[in-house]
Design brief:
With 551 residues, the protein is mainly beta. Helices cover 8% and strands 47% of the residues. The N terminus is likely disordered.
Amino acid sequence: MHPLLRALIKFEEFFQYKEESYMKTAYSRSGLAVMLILFVCCLFPRTVSAGHYLTVNYGTGDGWFNWHDRVNISANAPGSGQVFDRWSGGASGMYDDIHSSSTMFRMPGYNITITATYRAANPTYHLTVHSSSSDGDFHSNDVVNIVARAPNPGYVFDYWSGGTDAMFGNRSSSSTTFRMPNYDIEIWANYRLASATTTTTTTTTTTTTTTTGGGGSTTTTSTTIPSGQNQRASIVAVGIVNGQGRLVTVEGVARKTWAEYALWYDDSGTIYFKSGERFDGKVHSNDQLWFNGNPEFMTNCTSAASTYGGSTNSCIFHTGFQMNQPVGTMAETTFSNMLENACLVVTGITKVAFSSNTMNVANGTWSWTNRVYVLSNDWVFCVASGSGTNYGDIYISGSNLNGRVSVVSEQDIYITNNLVYANTNIAQSSTNLSDDALGLIANGDITVATTFPNNGKIYAHMMATGNITPSDNSDGSFSVQNYSSRSPSGDLNVYGGIVQWYRGAVGTFSGSTLVSGFDKNYTYDTRFQYNPPPCYPVQTSTLSFDVWKDF
């Protein structure tokens, strides 16, 4: 007990004694109690201030704090066979280092619970090998010998399916090696008829397959490959309706990708659209939207909620503002699904820098200080998490990207410097329209790092899915690191789009004045409606078409 408080109690006991002796006094016992309470409140204002409560599960740092207080939090020591993984709860920008077991946490303006999470120090994953006896449990990066069973009469081994090319020593060999990823996986041995040979020749525009049967007959099929991911089909239906023949064609059918959105999120985090902001592409939230001033929306602005926050009186909606719209989900946009299309997979913390048509990669797990890859056609580059604290984080920059690339992280992506195309003419009216494209897909968060320059530029469509922690609704955000303490840094210029689970903050403002961090200057890249970055995630059961004809 504080010495002054103990003295006050003794002081009150003295007055009780005097009162029993009928000593005259100007204060009654109840009046004295009120005086004591007021005195204690003045002496210990922190103990009676409401503030907001921070709950730290599996760690220390609980308590009452005011908005923007910086709190020292520490995780409990991990159990046997485990290591600290990361903090969950709240946006990543609230932590100085979300991956550190002892760090600082910036208190938001509401009660919040954060949790220290742990992972196995050296887990094993199960490999299932169909048509083989090479099944087993292995550590990440273990090299496993796999052997396909002998083929049935009349058949020969063809290839291994499942996983990525980088995982196999040789996909076309019945006896080869397989490098274990950091997740359970199934692979299959595939066989074909021994009496037929198949030759496939691929150019940048066509795929030609020639099959020669045992009798010498030859069948050749040539298929045109659409540019990038602009893969579209036509549907033809012929039938009889009420005795009349009918022909219906639907042309340009394609699955919609997430790149059709300028801005999409599930949880708004009470972040406002404010004066001076303009959005050229679709904007949607599963949560209610918040408005202040006169932001401008050039096309669809929708919400799954039945209400909104702030005021829309001065907002400019060119195609209206619709509420009670269907709820979307990114649950199927998983790291394992993206791996299926990967051209290159590495493990652990990775630095990526683009320079013209090359990608420079530094990775400690693979002992690379500056591995150079030439970008040809469409590239998908994936970074998986290693064991322990060797997370699958990516630190990325690039001043003149010349090519089409999608970069995928099993954890978080940090943008450390400008990301700019070699050709920045992205407007459809441009005479020299750019064919460069960049997609950034994080299983956790995408964060603009403290090293990012004032008035910096990001040319990319970005997805922060938060699927690494599906139970944490505040994970999966695009935000600026230390946005509330960074000096006013001008405009954050994004030319592309942002899809995130929890809308992260990039700055703070008072009225129309920037107080900290960045102002938003977001321009949607309309090219991505029909030609998104390579192998960009598609929306579940959502199709579009160009033309419907009924003959």
